[in-house]
Amino acid sequence: MSAAAASPDSRSNASAANGAGPLAGVKVLELGTLIAGPFAARFLGEFGAEVIKIEDPKGGDPLRKWRKLYPEAGGTSLWWAVQARNKKSVTVNLKAEEGKEIVRRLAKEADIVIENFRPGLLEKLGLGYDVLSKDNPGLVMVRLSGYGQTGPYRDRPGFGAIAESMGGLRHITGYPDLPPPRIGISIGDSIAALHGVIGAMMALHHRNMNGGSGQIVDVALYEAVFNMMESVVPEYGVYGMVRERTGASLPGIVPSNTYPCRDGSIVIGGNSDPIFKRLMMAIDRADLANDPQLAHNDGRVPRTAEIDGAIAAWLSTRTINEALDVLNAADVPVGRIYSVADMFADPQFAARQMIQQFRWQAPGEEEGEGVDIALPAVTPKLSATPGDTRWLGPALGEHTDEVLRTLGYDADHIARLREQHIV
Questions:
Q1: What CATH number is given for 256-339 in this structure?
Q2: pLDDT at residue 359, rounded to an integer
Q3: What is the pLDDT of residue 119?
C-alpha cells in the first residue's frame, strides 16, 4: 500500500463508526498549494467533507517535499501525511483548456472552492468566481491571499511571515532589546486558514438557512493576524500608545510570565484577582496577598517588578516538579514549557488521545513495509459527530481516474487526457 492509500491501523482512534462527520455531503474543491488554502480544506475534510485537491501533474503541491521526508532520500514530506489527509488528489494542467473544463465541471458540483493564488490568477485562467458561479450560483469561494482581493497591495506576493509582520504580531513578540523573532510555525497562514473555514461555514449557513446565494469569502493573511491583536488598536486610538515587546510577560496583565526554576522554566498565569491571592499565599507572601492595593489588576500593574521578583525568589530554590506540586495544589494556572517529546510522554495528551499512530508507506513499498507515523488527532472534539482521519496524504494524482469517472469521462477519454499531459 502506498503512502497515498495509507489507512489508520488498529492503534488509531478513528471515528468512522460514529458516522461520516458533520460535513458529510459537503463538496470542497481545493485550488491551492502549501499552507493557508490546503489547511482550510484539510479542516473541512477532517469533519466529513469530500475534498478534491487539484495538483499540477508535474510534481504537485510543493509541500510534498518540505521539511523531513520519508524515505529521507527522495521521499514524501511527513507534513504531507497530515496536511493532505482525507483529500482526493487529482492532477490537472490548468494551462490546458480541457484541464480548465475539468475544474469548471467539478466546481459546478461543489459547495465550496478554496484557493490561495495571487489575486487575478483564477480570472486569467477563466476560472474566476464570475465564471464558476454562473453554473453554480450557490457556490462559496474562499479566497486566501496576502493582502486580499482589493487595495493597492493586492498584487504583491504575501506569505504568512509578511502577514505576521504587517498584522502586528512580530512587533509585539520577543524582547525589547532584540529584533522581533518569528514563531516556530507558520502561524499567519494557519490563522488565515481558520478565518477561511469560519467564513465558509457562515456563508453556507446563509445559503442553506436564509435562502441566500453563494458568495466570496475574502481572507487577507495580514487581516487575519490583525484580528488577533486584542486591544492594540483602541489603546493607540485613545492614548497614542504603541504596544512594544515585553519578552515573556503579558503586558498590562499581572502576574503572567515565564519564571526560572532550578532546572528550567515554568509559565504562571496568576492574573485574576482570586488566583493572585492564592498564588501569593502559596509562595508564602501573605503580605502581598492581603495588600489592598494589589487586590485588582490595575493596582498590580505599577508593581509588576515587585510581584515578579517575589515569585522568582520563591522559585529560585525549587525544581520544576516541586513548584508544580505546590502551585497545582493551590489551584494556580501553571505549566512546564513542553517540547514535542514532553507531549508524547504526557498523560493528558494520552487520555485525550491527541497523538494517534498510523502506518505510512512510500510508493513502491510492499505490504508490511513502511514506518509508524504519529499524527495530531482531529480537533475540536465533537461528542456526536467527531472528526476523523480516514486516510493519510494521497499519492500525486491517486484519485484522478476515480473523480473523472464521476464526471462522465470514460477510460479512453482519461487515457487520452493522460497522454496529452492534461491530467
A1: 3.30.1540.10
A2: 92
A3: 97
